[in-house]
Amino acid sequence: MKLIGIVGTNANFSYNRLLLKYMQQHFAKDAEIEIIELTDVPMFNESDDQTNSPIIQAFNDKITAADGVIIATPEHNHSISSALKSLLEWLSFNVHPLDGKPVMIVGASLSSQGSSRAQLHLRQILDAPGVNAAVMPGNEFLLGSVQLAFDDEGNLREQGTIEFLETCFSRFQRFAKISNLLNIPEEVTFTPGTFAVTTPGHNGDLPMSVTLSKKRIEKIEIDTSKETEGIADVVFARIPQEIIDGQTLNVDVISGASVTSHGVIDGVAQAVKMAGANPDYLRQRPKAGTPQANQDEDYTTDVVIVGAGGAGLTAAAKTLQEGKKPIVVEKFPAIGGNTVRAGGPMNAADPEWQKQFPAIAGEAHTLQEIAAMDPETIDTEYRPDFLKLREQLEAYLTENDDQGSYLFDSTLLYRIQTYLGGKRTDLQGNEIHGQYDLVKILTDHALESVKWLADIGVEFDQSEVTMPVGAIWRRGHKPAKSVGYAYIEALSDYVKANGGQIMTDTDVTSLIDEDGQVRGIIATGANGQKVTIHAAAVVLASGGFGANTKMLKQYNTYWTEIADDIKTSNSPAITGDGIRLGQSVGADLVGMGFSQMMPVSDPDTGDLFTGLQVPPQNFVMVNQQGRRFVNEYGSRDQLTQAAIDNGGLFYLIADDRIKATAYNTSQEKIDQQVAAGTLYRDDTIAGLAQQLKMDPAVLEDTVTKYNRYADAGLDPEFGKDVFDLKVEQAPFYATPRKPAVHHTMGGLKIDTKAHVLNEQGQVINVLYAAGEVAGGIHAGNRLGGNSLTDIFTFGRIAADSAIHECLK
Amino acid sequence: MKLIGIVGSNATNSTNRQLLQFMQQHFSDQAEIDLCEIKDLPAFNEPADKTAPTGVQLLSDKIMAADGVIVSTPEYDHSIPAALKSAIEWLSYTTRPLIDKPVMIVGASHGSLGSSRAQAHLRQILDAPELKARIMPSDEFLLGHSLTAFAEDGQLIYPEKVQELEECFAEFVDFVTLTNELLKNRHVNAEHQRQFSWELDANGGQN
Ligand SMILES: Cc1cc2nc3c(=O)[nH]c(=O)nc-3n(C[C@H](O)[C@H](O)[C@H](O)COP(=O)(O)OP(=O)(O)OC[C@H]3O[C@@H](n4cnc5c(N)ncnc54)[C@H](O)[C@@H]3O)c2cc1C
Ligand SMILES: Cc1cc2nc3c(=O)[nH]c(=O)nc-3n(C[C@H](O)[C@H](O)[C@H](O)COP(=O)(O)O)c2cc1C
C-alpha cells in the first residue's frame, strides 16, 4: 500500500513531523509512506490561481496516485493551521485529488488535548463537497503532551500508545482498501442501438445520432451544417473523439465555442439516458488520455508569430515562401480568431474587372458628391491624390451618364474613400484620419493581396462584385466558399503542407527581452507548461481588443459611455494581448480611443444574426419606453450613440410582412427564440407593449405615427426618408437589441514596413505587427471589407521585412 | 463608537467586503467603521522571534484602539479561509489585541447557508484562550446568495436582511458598551504577556 503523509504545519520544528516519521519507519513493512511538506505551499487566493505551480501539482499528482493519505495536524487556536487549510483550499479549487480518497487523521499537540478540536474541524473540512475525502470514522489518534512522548531516537515511549497507533493503522489499511473499491467507476450498461437526439447548438438545433453497444459509446455523428464553419469545427473534431477515447462525459469545453461544446456533450448524455443508463456516472469518469506531463518546452525558429488569425497565418505563409521557418502560436484551441467570423468579401480596386459590371442607381451620385467636395476640406497629405481623383471622376462622369454606364473604380477612389470613411472627431474634439503612408500601402497593394491569396489556394467568385456591409463602394472580392473560413482554411492548409508549425492552446504572455533586445516569446501551454520560443524576429498578429471591456473603457474617447456588460461580436480571445506585449518593450500606441460598435446586436450574446434582421427601410426602432428615438437610416455610429443615450437596450418592431423581409432567419428559429424569450411576439401592439413592460398607449401611438410617416414618405420627427413597409399585419414582433463592440481601430504604432515603433518614433528591433493589433490605418472608422485587405497586406509585409532584415 | 471591520477574504472580489462596506455606510450615524484588509499580510509561519510583521502590527494597533471588531468571514470548505486563519494566528502568536475585545461575526456565502459553518468555527477559534475575544453571543448574521445580494451602488437589496442586520447591529452596539463598561477596570496587560501551559511546555517546560 502506498500512502502519502502530510505534515500539517509549515513550522521549522514539528512533533507532527516526528509522528509521521515514526509511522513511516514503524509501518515500513505494511506500507510505503511518503511524507510531503507544506513549506512551499503559497497562501490560497482565489484571485491568483496557482494550481499549476510545481508544489500544488506535486500534491495533486502524488495524492491522486496514492492508496490513501495520512494527515498529521497540530492545533492552532482550536483549529488546524492556516498552512494546512491553505493546501486543502488549493486541493478543492480547480483540482480535487482528495475526492473519495481514504484519509486517516492523527494529531500531536503540546496540551493534554492532543489536537482534539483541530481534528474535529479537519473532519468537517474534509467533508466539504469540494474536498469530499473519505475520512476514516472513529479511531481518533490524539497524542497529547507530545514533548514527553518521544525518546531521543524519535520513537514513541509508551507501549500503550504504540499499540493504539497500530490498531488505528491496521484499521486504516482495511478502511482504505474498502473505500477504494467505491472509487472504481460505476458499471454502465446501455441498451444497444443508435439514438437520434437534438441538442441546442449555437445557430439552432444540432441533430445528432449516437450509437451505443452494450458497454461502449461507439459512434457520435453530428449534422454540423448549421454551425459556423471554422469556429465550431474543432468542437466536432475534438469532443466526440474525447468522449469515445475516454468513454466519458467528463470533457473540457472548447473556449470560444462553449455553446456548441455543451450541446454535443448534452446530446450524448440524452442518448445515454435513452439507452437506460445514468449519464452522471459517465460524467464522473476521468477525462480521456493520461494526464500529459507539464514539462517546459523550448524551441528555436526563424520567425515566431503571435496569433493564428488572418494576419498571422499570412505572415507564416509568406515566411515559408521565402524559405524560412515560422512557428505560429495561438492561444485558443481553434485557429482563425476574428477572421473566421468575418462575413464578407475583401476590398481591392480592380477597375478592369469592375468595368464588366453595370453601374447601379445612385453610384454616379456618390461620385458626383466626391468630385464636388471642396479640396480645402481634404487634409493636405491627401490633397494631390484628391485632385487627381477629381480629374478621373470628371472624365468618367462626362463620358457616362447614370444609365447604362459601367462600375467605376480606381486605386485613388479606394484611397480617398478609406480616408474619408475613417475621418472622425472624438468627444474631446480631437480629429483623426488614416495615416497617409499606411493607407497608400493598403490601397496600392490590395489587389496584389487578392492575387497572392488566389495563388495560396483561396478561390474567388469573380461572377459578382459586392459591397461589404459598412463599405461605401462595390469592390468586394468574395471567396467562393464560406467567406471568413475560406481564407483561414486555405492559409492553414498551405502553412501545414509546407512544414510550418501552428501551436494551438498556447497563450503568449511575454516577450523575451534581453537588455532591450527582443529575442522571442514566452507562452503558457495547454497543461500550464512554460513554452519558450527563440526567434530572429517576432510578428505580433494577435488581433484587437474588442473582447476586453476594461481596456475599451480605459482608452475610449469616442463614445459617451461603454457599459460594463457590453457584448461583442468578437472571439473572446481578442483581448489586446499583443498591444500589451508591445508596450512591455516601449511601443507607442495610436488611435486607441476609437472603437466601432454594431448597433443592432443581441443584448445577451453580441451576435449579429439573432432575432429579425431586416433592411433598414423596414427598421422601426423604439426605446425602452416605446418611443422612436433616431432616424433608423442613420450610420452605425449615429444609431449606436442614440442607443447609448437611450439606455443601451432598444427594440426593433416588426409586423408579419416586415418579418418576411428578414434575411437571417427561418420560421423554426423564430418560434424557438419566441419560446426562449429572446424574441417577443403578440397579436396586438398593446399586448407586445405589455410583454416589454412599456405603456401600451405609448407604443400604439408610436406605431400609428410611424405608419403615417411611411404613407407620407417623410418623418418630421427624425427625418427618416426611405420607407418600405408599415407596421400593421399581426402578429407583431419585437427584437431586443443593444450596441456591441465590433472592431478596434487603434493599436500599436507601425510604419510602412510593419515595424513596431517606440514613443520616440524609432523602430523596435526585430518586432513587427500586422492586422487589428496595429493602429493608424482605419483611424476613426473602419470600412466594411477593409480589415481583410489590411491583414493580408500587412501580414505579408511584416514577414517580408522580418526576413530581409533579420535573417539575411 | 469606533469599530473596525476585518474583511475575511484575500480575494479581489469578495461579497464579504461588500457586506462590510454596506455596514460602514449604513450605520455611519451610529459608529465609525474602519475597514481592514488581510490580503497583504504574510502567511503565518511561526517565526522564532515572535515579532509581528509591520502589517500585523498595524492591524493589531487598530484593534487595540477600537471599541469593537466586526469580522466578516467567507466560507471555504466548511471553515474560515486560510488567509483569515493566518491573520488570527499572527495576532494570537504576537500581540494578542483581541483579548477582551467585543467581536461581532457576520458572513456571506454564494450558497444558501450564509457561511454558517465557517462562523461556528470562527467562534470556537476566537474563544481559544490565546485569543479570548468577547464574542457577541447568540446573534448571528448569515447572508446567503451573496452574489446577487448587492445592487450596483452597494446597497443590500433584501429588505428583510437589512432589517435583521440593523437588529444585530443595535444589539452589538449595546454589547460593546456593556462589555467595555464591565471590563474597564481589568488590566489585560498581564494577559497579553501570559504564557499558556502549552507555550511553557514548548519552551522547555516549567523547570
Ligand atoms: C463578426 C465579425 C465580422 C467581421 N466581418 C468583416 C468583414 O466582412 N470584412 C472585413 O474586412 N472585416 C470584418 N471583420 C473584421 C475582421 O474580421 C478582423 O478585423 C480581422 O479578421 C482581424 O484579423 P487579425 O489577423 O488581425 O486578428 P484575428 O483574426 O482576430 O486573429 C488573432 C488571433 O490571435 C490570437 N491571440 C490573441 N492573443 C494571443 C496570445 N496572447 N497568444 C497567442 N495567440 C493570441 C487569437 O486567439 C486569434 O486567433 C469582422 C469581425 C467580426 C468580429
Ligand atoms: C476553495 C473554496 C472553497 C469553498 N467552500 C465553500 C463552502 O464550504 N461553503 C460555501 O458556502 N461556499 C464555499 N465557497 C464559495 C465562496 O467562496 C463562499 O461562499 C464565500 O463565503 C463567499 O464570500 P466572498 O464573496 O466574500 O468570497 C468556496 C470557495 C472556494 C474558492
Cα end-to-end separation of chain A: 61 Å
Backbone structural class of chain A: alpha/beta
* Share of residues in helices of chain A: 25-40%
CATH superfamily of chain B: Flavodoxin domain
* Pattern of helices and strands of chain B: EHEHEHEHEEHHH
Poorly predicted sequence stretches spanning 5 or more consecutive residues of chain A: none
DSSP helical segment count of chain B = 7
Instruction: Round the Cα radius of gyration of chain B to an integer and report it.
Output: 17 Å
Overall mean pLDDT of chain B stands at 90
CATH class of chain B: Alpha Beta
Largest interface: A-B, 36 and 38 residues
In this entry the ligands are:
flavin-adenine dinucleotide, flavin mononucleotide
**Number of DSSP-assigned strands of chain B:** 6
As a percent range, the share of strand residues of chain A is: 15-25%
Number of domains of chain B: 1
In quaternary terms, these chains amount to heterodimer
| Secondary structural class of chain B | alpha/beta
**CATH architecture term of chain B:** 3-Layer(aba) Sandwich
Determine the mean pLDDT of chain A.
Answer: 93
Which fold name fills CATH's third level, the topology of chain B? Rossmann fold
Count of distinct strands of chain A: 30
Short description:
The complex is a heterodimer of chains A (808) and B (207). Chain A is α/β, with parallel strands linked by helices and 808 residues long. Chain B is of the alpha/beta class and 207 residues long.
Polypeptide structure, described:
- The complex is a heterodimer of chains A (808) and B (207).
- Chain A contains 23 helices and 30 strands.
- Chain A is an alpha/beta fold and 808 residues long.
- In chain A, strands 10, 11, 17, 18, 19, 20, 29 and 30 form an eight-stranded mixed sheet that branches. In chain A, strands 1, 2, 3, 4, 5 and 6 form a six-stranded parallel sheet that branches. In chain A, strands 21, 23, 24, 25, 26 and 27 form a six-stranded mixed sheet that branches.
- Chain A is globular, with a radius of gyration of 33 Å.
- In chain A, strand 4 (102-108), helix 4 and strand 5 form a beta-alpha-beta unit.
- In chain A, helix 14 (436-456) crosses helix 23 (786-806).
- By secondary structure, chain B is an alpha/beta fold.
- Chain B has one domain (2-193): Flavodoxin domain (Rossmann fold, 3-Layer(aba) Sandwich), CATH 3.40.50.
- Chain B has seven helices and six strands.
- Chain B has helices at 15-26, 54-65, 82-93, 116-126, 159-183, 189-193, 197-202, and strands at residues 2-7, 32-37, 68-73, 102-108, 134-135, 141-143.
- In chain B, strands 1, 2, 3, 4, 5 and 6 form a six-stranded parallel sheet that branches.
- Mean pLDDT of chain B is 90; it is low at 200-207.
- Chain A binds chain B through residues 9-12, 42-47, 76-83, 85-86, 88-89, 92, 109-111, 117, 121, 124-125, 127-128, 130-131, 145, 147, and chain B through 10-13, 39, 43-46, 48, 76-83, 85-86, 88-89, 92, 117, 121, 124-128, 130-131, 197-199, 201-202, 205.
- Bound molecules: flavin-adenine dinucleotide (FAD) and flavin mononucleotide.
